[in-house]
Design goal:
- The chain is α+β, with helices and mostly antiparallel strands and about 160 residues long.
- The protein folds into two domains: about 70 residues, NADH-quinone oxidoreductase subunit E (Arc Repressor Mutant, subunit A); about 80 residues, Glutaredoxin.
- It is built from eight helices and four strands.
- The protein has a four-stranded mixed β-sheet with strand order 2-1-3-4, covered by helices on one side.
- The chain is elongated.
- The structure holds FE2/S2 (inorganic) cluster.
- The site of FE2/S2 (inorganic) cluster has 11 residues, from α6.
């Protein structure tokens, strides 16, 4: 088992340590709080999960760092590299695909200056292809910073992405 030291725990901000300590009381097993804790780390620590953050989280949850990395790398909502200020998510499953997701993605690449999975040179956008975002009835769609834009056309993409700083 990963050695939990005072030092390892201290690599997380005290506010997150306090939050996670309370969070763990809601679950029968401490590790069940891992995913919500990773979300909170990503929100609070720059929008991504650095190797140091993953190690600190592992220390808190008394897990091996590789276990935490395995969880964080499995879910596309976790970012293991620095990301742009705004996150653009385009899904590619069958509903959106049949209704023009590739055209949406192509326009999102042009409008954001990103390649899929990449971050624009100016740091404004990160563009990701993701699994179905649960809005198939109004496909195609994209999410900008978690806000859904549904039933869109490629022309809409420029307006949507052009509306953020
Ligand atoms: S495939 Fe895009 S919302 Fe389901």
């Amino acid at each position: 088992m990963h050695e939990v030291t005072h030092e390892t725990r201290n690599n997380l901000p005290p506010t997150l340590v306090a939050e996670f300590t309370e969070l763990c009381t809601h679950y029968p097993e401490r590790r069940a709080a891992l995913i919500p804790a990773l979300h909170r780390c990503q929100e609070e620590l720059g929008g991504w999960l650095s190797p140091e953050t993953l190690e600190a989280v592992a220390g808190f949850f008394e897990l091996e760092p590789v276990e935490v990395f395995g969880v964080a790398s499995f879910y596309p909502m976790f970012h293991l590299r620095p990301r742009g200020k705004h996150l653009v998510s385009v899904c590619h499953n069958i509903s959106c695909d049949l209704r023009g997701a590739q055209d949406i993605l192509d326009e999102a690449c042009k409008a954001s200056g990103c390649t899929p999975g990449g971050t624009s040179d100016d740091g404004r956008f990160t563009l990701v292809r993701v699994e179905c975002q649960g809005a198939c009835t109004s496909a195609p769609m994209l999410a900008l910073d978690g806000v859904y834009h549904e039933g869109i056309t490629p022309e809409d993409v420029h307006r949507i992405l052009g509306g953020v700083q």
